[in-house]
Amino acid sequence: MQIEFITKNDLERFKNELISEIKQILEAKSSIHSKEWLKSPEVMKLLGISSGTLQNLRINGTLKFSKVGGTIYYKSEDIQRMIETGGAK
């Protein structure tokens, strides 16, 4: 059995990582609420998914979308729901 020690530096690094992740979540939520429609790159960043995963979500009907010209748009409320339920991961 190996004993590991947690140092003050370890705790400080953990705290900084946690704060960073919380800031990202809050920024993502504020970004969602500021727009009614989001483009694919924004959705991929918010959900932390690849373009292939986003395409699969469209194909299997998990995520509704609208296409205008060559641009695909997603309702921000649908993206918010996916974030809250963890549906994309």
Specify the overall morphology. Answer: elongated
Relative strand content: 5-15%
Largest sheet: 3 strands, antiparallel
The percent range for helix content is 55-70%
What is the count of structural domains? Answer: 1
Spatial order of the strands forming the largest sheet: 1-3-2
Could you tell me the radius of gyration in angstroms? 18 Å
CATH class: Mainly Alpha
Mean pLDDT equals 87
DSSP E strands, number: 3
Give the structural class.
alpha+beta
Q: Give the end-to-end Cα distance, rounded to a whole number of Å.
A: 35 Å
Name given to the CATH architecture: Orthogonal Bundle
How many separate helices?
A: 4
Order of helices and strands: HEHHEEH
Low-pLDDT regions: none
CATH fold title: Multidrug-efflux Transporter Regulator, Chain: A, Domain 2
In short:
The protein has helices at about 10-35, 40-45, 50-60, 75-85, and strands at about 35-40, 65-70, 70-75. The protein is of the alpha+beta class and about 90 residues long. The protein has a single domain, classed as Orthogonal Bundle (Multidrug-efflux Transporter Regulator, Chain: A, Domain 2), CATH 1.10.1660.
Defining traits:
89 residues, elongated, alpha+beta, 61% helix, 4 helices, 3-stranded antiparallel β-sheet, Multidrug-efflux Transporter Regulator, Chain: A, Domain 2
Report on the structure:
The protein has 89 residues and is of the alpha+beta class. The two termini are 35 Å apart. Helices cover 61% and strands 12% of the residues. The protein has a single domain (8-85), classed as Multidrug-efflux Transporter Regulator, Chain: A, Domain 2. 11% of the residues are buried.
